[in-house]
TrEMBL record:
Species for this entry: Oleiagrimonas citrea
PANTHER family attached to this UniProt entry: NITROGEN REGULATORY PROTEIN GLNK, NITROGEN REGULATORY PROTEIN P-II
Keyword Nucleotide-binding: yes
GO MF term (any one): ATP binding
One GO biological process term: regulation of nitrogen utilization
Protein name as annotated: P-II family nitrogen regulator
GO cellular component assignments: cytosol
Pfam family, one: P-II
InterPro entries: N-reg_PII, N-reg_PII-like_a/b, N-reg_PII/ATP_PRibTrfase_C, N-reg_PII_CS, N-reg_PII_urydylation_site
Length: 112
């Protein structure tokens, strides 16, 4: 099992969600976050004064997947989230040791 953490631009959420649904991914968690990478920040003008926005709004998606779903899910995410510009985001994949569904006490793949 794998734990996939994805950072994307907020306006790409619907595209990514639809792409994941098409490859059979049934659930994900979304969190509004702020951050920067190579994109750094940008300068904005407010009431005639310039100020620097260091942290840009992003969305963090967290998805638990079986090993069999992983490659198709990553392809779907990257394809749907890509704009070709700096700041499109990142996909992080790590091992998931155990999953327990609270309602039924199912474990691991059965709990996904």
């Amino acid at each position: 099992m794998k734990w996939v953490t994805v950072i994307i631009k907020p306006f790409k959420l619907d595209d990514v969600r639809e792409a994941l649904a098409e490859v059979g991914v049934q659930g994900l968690t979304v969190t509004e976050v702020k951050g920067f990478g190579r994109q750094k920040g940008h300068t904005e003008l407010y009431r005639g004064a310039e100020y620097v926005v260091d942290f840009l709004p992003k969305l963090k998606l967290e998805i638990a997947l079986s090993d069999e779903q992983l490659e198709r899910a990553i392809e779907a995410i990257v394809g749907a989230a890509r704009t070709g510009k700096v700041g499109d985001g990142k996909v992080f994949v790590s091992d998931l040791e155990q999953v327990i569904r609270i309602r039924t006490s199912e474990t691991d793949i059965d709990a996904l």
